[in-house]
Amino acid sequence: MGAPIIDKATQIEAAENTRLWERTPGSKELYAQAVGSMPMGVGSSFQAWEPYPVYLREGRGAHVWDVDGHEYLDFHNGFGCMVVGHAHPKVTEAIKRAARSGTHFAAPTETTVRFAEVLCERFGVDSVRFANSGTEATMSAIRVARAATGRDHIVKIEGSYHGHHDAVMFSVVPNAEHMGGREAPATTPMSKGIPAAMAEYTHVVPFNDLEVLRGLLAERGGDIACLILEPVMMNIGICQPQPGYLQALSDLLHAHGALLIFDEVKSGATIAYGGAAERYGVQPDLACWAKAICGGTPGAAFGGRADVMASIETGAAHQGTFNGNPLVAAAGLATLTEVLTPDAYEHLGDLGTRLADGCAKAIDEHGIPAHAVDLGAKGCVSYRPEPLTGYRDFLETTPELYLASYPWAMNRGIFMTPGDEEQWTISVQHTETDIDRYVDQFVEFCAALAP
Ligand SMILES: Cc1ncc(COP(=O)(O)O)c(C=O)c1O
Q1: Domain residue extents for the chain
Q2: Which atom of ligand 1 is nearest to the CA of 135?
Q3: Is any ligand 1 atom within 6 A of the Cβ of residue 265?
Q4: Domain 89-339, what fold?
Q5: Would the CB of 275 count as within 6 Å of ligand 1?
Q6: Which of 112, 227, 316, 337 could form a disulfide with 155 if both were Cys (CB 3.0 to 4.6 A apart)?
Q7: How far apart are CA 28 and CA 15, in angstroms?
Q8: Which residues are known catalytic residues?
């Protein structure tokens, strides 16, 4: 790829950012206020953006409104939580009912029991426990895997994100100069404040690669409790497993007495009715779900094989004041049983294909070094011509093109995730017309970039 397209992207980024900043004085003002009470002016560092994020006021259906009153079609959808769309009447009604009858007891309720049954049935697991975020779900699943195997070490995939607890905050977005060779990826912390000794227990292997894991297991197999992975990587755009990879991974781990954990925090309830386990036909020993399963309320769960989950009954601590909270469980039940039904996935699949195909056509027509991915409610444009096979391919994408696309989309009424590691999320409340509005602005973007 030549430099001219990067020059054009850089010019577009500058012009579109200037326009975005002119259009959003209310966000700028709120940011100035917010930094007085929150680091970076946001409640979670993922929401920060330079020089300030766009602050939202309201969401309804497929739309959100910012504090300046601009309306956008929402393809960010709360980092993939809002597959139900905003203020869905069935979810809203369930929340209202639950609020009227008591929002928290820290005692089990009928709603919680029913929600657990629905999760077991949908994701094909024997039992589940609840959490309040994806972070807590992966943290607890790892605890259970360690307890069940009596081993301390874990393996994760280079470039995978599993939340912000210490064990998994390694090699999430490692710099090229710190990531080590492909055959022996380094374990590099993503954050300050993580004791260096933690690195001893977390090993890193590449995605879509069995050989490095095979070598590690041959050397340390007896120490390794589990491998945790996103069965489809969704924090580097989207990177799919190669055919046979997930099953081979499971077989290899089992041969060494280790367990397989699927982190379906993003994929569960978005890429198929039964998440990645259904879509790729592989059942892990344990799985974690969050984001889309509770209709925009802070709920999560993990679960799996009865014999593994039984370690909670024999000494693996799993606590949490709010776990299984009735308000969240009611929202989750309505989400999974009344909104995200099998029919919904047909609608989401059709819209997703319409969106990805529209983007792919524009990419082709204008010779943009990119490709589009279509995966149910999820999809993305990745600025590399060929699909990714792992994290190191993500480093070959062209961030300048993404950085131009973000304010371009925002200025044309498309609310998108800030960050090229993210992807779009379609909701059941999107229509074909909404999808075409996304595609239209993207076609114009490609035309503006084209040589
Ligand atoms: C794959 C994956 N796992 C875990 C998490 C952590 O979830 P949460 O932000 O709810 O703690 C995320 C968050 O983006 C994620 O993408």
Answers
A1: 3-75+341-449, 89-339
A2: 11
A3: yes
A4: Aspartate Aminotransferase; domain 2 (3.40.640)
A5: no
A6: 227
A7: 18
A8: 161, 263, 291
